Amino acid sequence: MYVAGQGAPLLLIHSVNAASSAAEVRPLHEHYARSRTVFSIDLPGFGLSERSDRPYTPRLMTDAIHAVAEQIRLRCGNAAIDALAVSLSCEFLARAATEKPGDYRSLALVSPTGFSGTQSRRGPPGSTLAMPWLLKALRGPGWGAALFRGLTRPGVVRFFLRKTWGAKKIDEWLWQQAVLTAREPGAEHAPLHFLSGGLFSRDIHNVYDQLTAPVWMSHGTRGDFTDYRGKTRIQERANWHFSVYPTGAMPHFEIPERFCQDYDQFLALPPAVR
């Protein structure tokens, strides 16, 4: 966990992909450390966290967020937390907030998953989209790590970041960090669970519906992550607020000033409005 600054607590959670780490929220960490106590974490299996060969599930990720929230509230005088997550980690943060709503003052969901297409994901509580047969194939006897190394070659990492950005120009520092973190021992374990669906919640629409905290959802209009047709399910809810940007899936890298201004405006709304 990376901690900086003083003031009200702000928790930042990176996305999930083959080379994820807290580097994905660095612009926000550095900006808000001027006025907040900022906590940026590496989820289990990513960054500098433990990367053992174990089941990686939404439950594991949600419990990790619970553990961090407990540490934050102990450090910050039991203050409720403003929390921001990116992409698939929005599902983990949302679940944490439904299970312990008193921990959170507000939620910011950047390019969240669970809103593409029109198909409903209202499976049994705690169910996932895991495909055990695919995980077994991906791990394969003796070649799972080799497959992962192929997926995380520098050129391949650049290719996927360009798809995330929806442009050839990407953040070069983030690319360097992604290449480095993918070389950590055991780096393949969590991503292979991700690729086989095991980190996606089959019941996520039920989870989103249960959120009572103020929610700010933002996303871009460029790249591979622009299908938010499912947003209509929650668009009329009073506690949800929305921003759309002419960017890729990480607007906080491309237009950090505008992004932070919009986030600050959301945080400043009176409780009755937020």
Number of domains: 1
> What is the number of helices?
11
CATH architecture: 3-Layer(aba) Sandwich
* Overall SS class: alpha/beta
Low-confidence stretches: none
**Oligomer description:** single chain
**How much of the polypeptide forms β-strand, as a percent range?**
5-15%
Ordered list of secondary-structure elements with their pairings:
Elements: E1 2-4, E2 9-13, H1 26-32, E3 37-41, H2 58-75, E4 81-86, H3 89-99, E5 104-110, H4 132-139, H5 144-151, H6 154-165, H7 172-181, H8 189-195, H9 204-209, E6 215-220, E7 240-245, H10 251-254, H11 256-268
Parallel strand pairs: 2-3, 2-4, 4-5, 5-6, 6-7
Antiparallel strand pairs: 1-3
Helix pairs in contact: 2-3, 6-7
Describe this structure in words.
With 274 residues, the protein is α/β, with parallel strands linked by helices. It has one domain: Rossmann fold, CATH 3.40.50. Helix content is 38%, strand content 14%. The protein is built from 11 helices and 7 strands. It has helices spanning 26-32, 58-75, 89-99, 132-139, 144-151, 154-165, 172-181, 189-195, 204-209, 251-254, 256-268; strands spanning 2-4, 9-13, 37-41, 81-86, 104-110, 215-220, 240-245. It has a 7-stranded mixed β-sheet with strand order 1-3-2-4-5-6-7, with helices on both faces. Strand 2 (9-13), helix 1 (26-32) and strand 3 form a beta-alpha-beta unit. Helix 2 (58-75) packs across helix 3 and helix 6 packs across helix 7 (172-181). The longest helix is centred in the first third of the chain and has 18 residues, at 58-75. The protein is globular.
